[in-house]
Amino acid sequence: MAQPRAICVFCGASAGANPAYLAAARAVGAALAGRGIELVYGGGRVGLMGAVADAALAAGGRVTGVIPLALVERELAHPGLSDLRIVTTLHERKALMAELSDAFLALPGGLGTLEELAEVLSWAQLGLHTKPIGALDVEGYFDGLAAYLDHATAEGFIAPDQRGLLAIETDLDVLLDRFVAAS
């Protein structure tokens, strides 16, 4: 069991309606830095993305952002990262974030977060990687996703052994410890 060197965090470019989401993003950034784990994320300076990066940097952590050029041109790139990688497309962004990371952690977010999470889950289901994947369930945010996955499993669309590909936890330390145990 080895600690992941770098964890990719998927999360919203919005702060969301519940202040607990920002608090969770800040806690994730600080916890990763405190454990000596590099944060890899989408490179944005706003919303939960900016909060997780700012917290990791403030705690002395290393942060790598991967952002498409179109978002840089819209002035959404975080200016203070340890490393900012600029790519052409969202597909390149996801592939590079996955390549740079040893695990994936989802925080609350919208369609982009859901799409990123679904893609790494699909890749794991197909055996393209064996990296741990988790979601930090902040005040029930991922309850609907868990119910959907359980329903899809019951209906035969997800194999029961593959239902466990996504660890959903309410406690950040428990989730990070699961990543260590799976590495």
Low-confidence stretches: none
| Residue-averaged pLDDT | 96
- Main pleated-sheet profile: 7 strands, parallel
Q: In angstroms, what separates the terminal alpha carbons?
A: 6 Å
Indicate the multimeric state.
single chain
Rg, Cα atoms, Å: 15 Å
| Secondary-structure element pattern, one letter each | EHEHEHEHEHEHHEH
Give the tally of β-strands.
7
Describe the protein:
- The protein is of the alpha/beta class and 183 residues long.
- It is built from eight helices and seven strands, in the order E-H-E-H-E-H-E-H-E-H-E-H-H-E-H.
- It has a seven-stranded parallel sheet, sandwiched between helices.
- Helix 1 (19-34) packs parallel to helix 2 (47-58).
- The termini are close together.
Q: How would you describe this structure in keywords?
A:
single chain; 183 residues; alpha/beta; 8 helices; globular
